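=== RUN LOG ===
request id: a7f3
mode: sequence -> structure
chains: 1
length: 96
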Amino acid sequence: MEALFWREAESNQVLPLNATTFTRMVQPRPSLAAGRTVFTYSGEMTGTPVDDKDYQVSFRFTGKLDKLTLTIDRPKLSPDDIKKLKMAMDHNPAQE
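=== RESULT ===
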């Protein structure tokens, strides 16, 4: 039975077996957004979790957006803000 297991594992390309699932889950993953401050989206956007009810303008809009460009800057934090942020992160029970 054990020999059969190893043959099937090899034929299904699941070797080598390892116990690193948790380790791999908590490792940082590559990000397409890393280091970028400008994102340009054009065309139809699918898969974005936006509810139209959350973004209603105070006037009737009948136009069409062909392109939307956002520039996102990181906030400038004072040394005191950084200290408060680190303290909050150290005491976050969700990280435990």
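=== NOTES ===
Residues 8 and 14 are 9 Å apart (CA to CA).
Residues 2-95 form one domain.
=== END ===
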